[in-house]
Amino acid sequence: MIDSGLTRYLTQRRRCPRGNLQTMRYGIFAGGKRIRPVLTLAAGEVFGAQKNSLLQFACALEFIHAYSLIHDDLPALDDDDFRRGELSNHKVFGEGTALLAEPLRAMARYVVEWKA
Length: 116
Description:
The chain is mainly α. The chain contains seven helices and two strands.
């Protein structure tokens, strides 16, 4: 459910350059437990909210998290070569292209304002 939501929102970025979209997808789908979106959906369920109505907020959190990990791994910060056993984004695409993952942060706002 969460991965399909992330894919749906990413594919709506029609004006996004191909290399930029690749680096964003690599950052989003590089693995992980999706704990933040799962907790968002679970907390909403406790208060009676429908999962579908919370999915956009869960995805927004995951976009922010992925953005923060990509930037954290950059040479100017932690300079990590690997993330979750895979090459870091900047090692696969180059530092300049990894910096272009910045729209993931903006995607969070876009997703929250999404009119399904």
